[in-house]
Design goal:
about 220 residues; Spore Coat Polysaccharide Biosynthesis Protein SpsA, Chain A; globular
Length: about 220
């Protein structure tokens, strides 16, 4: 198995160092690619100093575009997609690999078991994603927006490109299920930075909600 870890990052200077240290410790021989999605802080510099093999600095185009860039550069036959804000808990995501490596699943998705994983919103984005995925595929997902995923290279090649913005995870799940791939959710003791209730956070969640709706509509008409 050759592993590539893809980490899209946007203004994660406070947590990406811990994330990368945990990832490098868990995968000393793995390829680690960080795609800095136009951060205005020192995310790029910290990533270069903290164990990433490849750091790409791009314009701010959204998470999905960053994932597409990272996946194109990856040379592993198994890819692990991780958010940059997992901190020291990032090593727990490696439990996603076993079902893919053993051939029991084409893609695994992390379900956060930690109490620190809930956000400050009302769950509208998650609810929209879960309902849309069920309508399009018949599958009810516990963690429809989880960005922590392991996937085989062969499976991923049939699903690219991902939706360029906040709809990336939804498009990945819908495409995989519609293609008949085996998708398995795995509980992981992960934590991440959660959004609060400031105006900026509310606007962020609103943008995510509308991106998810747009992605679901496009998935329906493209299938």
């Amino acid at each position: 198995m050759k592993l590539s870890v893809i980490i899209p990052a946007f203004n994660e200077g406070e947590r990406i160092r811990e994330t990368l240290i945990a990832v490098r410790t868990a995968a000393p021989d793995g390829q680690i690619i960080v795609v800095d999605d136009g951060s205005s802080d020192d995310t790029y510099k910290i990533a270069e100093q903290s164990g990433a093999d490849v750091v790409i600095r791009s314009e701010h185009k959204g998470k999905g575009d960053a994932l597409n860039t990272g996946c194109q550069l990856a040379d592993g036959n198994i890819l692990l997609l991780l958010d940059a804000d997992l901190g020291s808990s990032a090593d727990q995501a490696f439990s996603l690999l076993e079902p893919v490596v053993e051939g029991a699943a084409d893609m695994t998705i992390a379900v956060f078991t930690s109490s620190g994983s809930s956000g400050g919103g009302m769950g509208l984005a998650v609810g929209a994603a879960r309902t849309g995925i069920k309508l399009l595929t018949g599958r009810v997902m516990r963690a429809p927006l989880s960005g922590q995923r392991a996937i085989s290279r062969d499976a991923l090649n049939t699903l690219l490109p991902l939706s360029p913005g906040w709809g990336a995870e939804v498009s990945l799940t819908v495409k995989a299920l519609q293609a008949g791939l085996r998708v398995l959710e795995v509980e992981c003791a992960l934590t991440h930075r959660v959004t609060g209730k400031s105006l900026t956070d509310i606007l962020h969640r609103a943008a995510q909600f509308f991106a998810i709706l747009t992605t679901l509509i496009l998935c329906k008409f493209r299938h």
